[in-house]
Amino acid sequence: MPRSERSALLLAGLLATAGVGHFVAPRPFAATVPRSLPGSPRAWTYASGAAELALAAGLAVPRTRRASARAAAAFFVGVFPANVKMAVDWRHRSAPLRTAAFARLPLQIPLVLWARGVAKGEEARS
């Protein structure tokens, strides 16, 4: 399996796992939804989980991979405010939890770059 395909499928697996998590255990995800968003946090949790599953499916199919990778990069940027909210909300928790919440913030950058790299890899193949 070519490296670019393996990378796309790994990203798809990450998104699928996260997407399933939004439905199996929605409470922690709903807690990170910024209050400024209209509607219920649970609805946003399910919507983002469905989006992650759709992105995963798109990344798994070569014909839709480039568009899905671009959409995944945008998605990772779009959910960044939820990670900021989590870090702010968890600033008084135990050191390991606080560290995990703040460590998630810079991790969005490699996720965005990973998705962009998958898209660029597909562009090079076409």
Automatic annotation (TrEMBL):
Membrane topology: Multi-pass membrane protein
Methylamine utilisation protein MauE domain span: 8-78
One Gene Ontology CC term in the entry: membrane
Highest taxon of the lineage: Bacteria
Keywords, alphabetical: Membrane, Transmembrane, Transmembrane helix
Subcellular location: Membrane
Name of a matching Pfam family: MauE
Chief place where the protein resides: membrane
GO annotation terms (biological process): methylamine metabolic process
InterPro entries, sorted: Methylamine_util_MauE
Protein name: Methylamine utilisation protein MauE domain-containing protein
Species name: Streptomyces phyllanthi
